[in-house]
Amino acid sequence: MADVKSQANPLFLREEELRQAIELLYYAYRDFTAEPDAMLARYNFGRAHHRVIYFVGRHPQMSVSDLLAILRITKQSLSRVLGQLVRQGFIRQSPGSRDRRRRLLELTEKGVELERQLSENQRQRIARAYRESGAQAVDGFRKVMFGIMSSEEDRKRVARRTEVPR
Amino acid sequence: MADVKSQANPLFLREEELRQAIELLYYAYRDFTAEPDAMLARYNFGRAHHRVIYFVGRHPQMSVSDLLAILRITKQSLSRVLGQLVRQGFIRQSPGSRDRRRRLLELTEKGVELERQLSENQRQRIARAYRESGAQAVDGFRKVMFGIMSSEEDRKRVARRTEVPR
DNA sequence: CATATAAGTCAACATGGCTGACGTAAAATC
DNA sequence: GATTTTACGTCAGCCATGTTGACTTATATG
Q1: pLDDT tens digit string along A95-113?
Q2: Are B123 and A19 in contact (CB under 8 A)?
């Protein structure tokens, strides 16, 4: 039987491999977002708020259109959550100095604190998975994840931070 | 500068590493689901329909409660999409023989065809990423993804298929 | 027979996507 | 300097998909 699957019909294993990956993405993402979602519910916030807080924290002074490009949602959708976060004092907007049409976004202290709480869980989850898998596996994980992504621009943005400075 | 980051302050790189992983999960998942979402829209279906079709295709004759356990949503939420799929002839229900309360789910031919179309895109995306990364990277990817998941039960279900039969 | 389980239904609500139309201020261009 | 483009925002309405809570029906099990 082993021969039938692994030699006589290599396509079978390949199909199983690919479906396994589909499921890994589904389950990992589901579990990865479950706990922050529960925390956010206590503020009457949702996953969309988390994404905004995360990326504004990650890229301080970014403009609204930069954020739209990362999130790939409409400005109307963003506006709803961003407006709430600004009104409730998690995010501050200030006009750009070179181009005063732009409204640059940054986390307030309150925003930084919430971001920290939300991502703490996710960082620990990743840290555990990385630790248990080893450096070589982490490298493979990164390679495959970069390969799954569509946009070269996104790849560059994500890769930049961990490059060794020359 | 390289020394400052990689030796004098190893925690900095570690933090960057973890945040990179958070972003990889976000971007990879976003891009992974974008194309099936667009296809589903043509049927007036959403991502929830895809998940149901996928898992019923993957586990033929599964019961509604099995599906609920995988999806981790309420039966009311499931009922809406499952009902549509059954009424529109993508999924067939039949009473279990041992326990006639259970309604066992399977794809119809039409359902199989839709499933194939939807996952084709995802399988190709994974295949490309796997091919470009190499077998060792794939192994690492799997290790880390399993580590990110919360449930041992889910891990077992996903791992089972690619085990070498003894 | 009593109780538990599997599945479904109805109602109401929230979140977060979407489209379309329109407005304002600032920058860029002709 | 007038016109056009860009960045951002708003209002209105729609849809998909999650939630809670209450209740029903059929079947299995103690």
Answers
A1: 999 999 999 999 999 999 9
A2: yes
| Nucleic strand D under 7 Å from the C-beta of B46 | yes
CATH class of B44-160: mainly alpha
CB of A160 less than 8 A from some CB of B: no
CATH topology of domain A45-133: Arc Repressor Mutant, subunit A (1.10.10)
Please indicate if any CB of chain A lies within 8 Å of the CB of B120: no
Stretch B18-34: mean pLDDT, rounded?
96
Q: Spell out the domain ranges in chain B.
A: 44-160
Is-contact A105 B99, C-beta < 8 A?
A: no
Q: Between residues 136 and 155 of chain B, which touch chain A (CB distance below 8 Å)? A: 136-151, 154
Q: How would DSSP label each residue in A12-25?
A: HHHHHHHHHHHHHH
- The answer to whether A28 contacts B25, with C-beta atoms less than 8 Å apart, is yes
